[in-house]
Amino acid sequence: xxxxxxxxxxxxxxxxxxxxxxxxxxxxxxxxxxxxxxxxxxxxxxxxxxxxxxxxxxxxxxxxxxxxxxxxxxxxxxxxxxxxxxxxxxxxxxxxxxxxxxxxxxxxxxxxxxxxxxxxxxxxxxxxxxxxxxxxxx
Length: 138
What we know:
The structure is a single chain. By secondary structure, this protein is of the alpha+beta class. Helices cover 34% and strands 27% of the residues. The protein is built from four helices and six strands, in the order E-H-H-E-E-E-E-H-E-H. Strand 3 and strand 4 form a beta hairpin. The radius of gyration is 18 Å and the shape is globular. 12% of the residues are buried.
């Protein structure tokens, strides 16, 4: 079955609204996660730390430039994700429509590319596969 990532995207305003009722938001998210576990579709779910604690590595110049957060004018922030193993994009969309999100937030639904969609004889892919096998990840 294909994997889909539900990417939680918010703004400063929606993040502030969520933090204002964090206990309620966490309880609703916990119930949603339990539903996905019971349905057998949840592979992973993680939230991200405050963007002010992160950095941006910018490759627009000759050398990468690292800038501490917050990121200045950011319209939307990637706040976390749910990784699902579902039968179709439509099923992923149906789960996305059930995410307990505050008004104004968005959930982006993206299919995760399968390893067989890239050339398996590519040197980087071969090294990655060997590394995963040696670490027991495959």
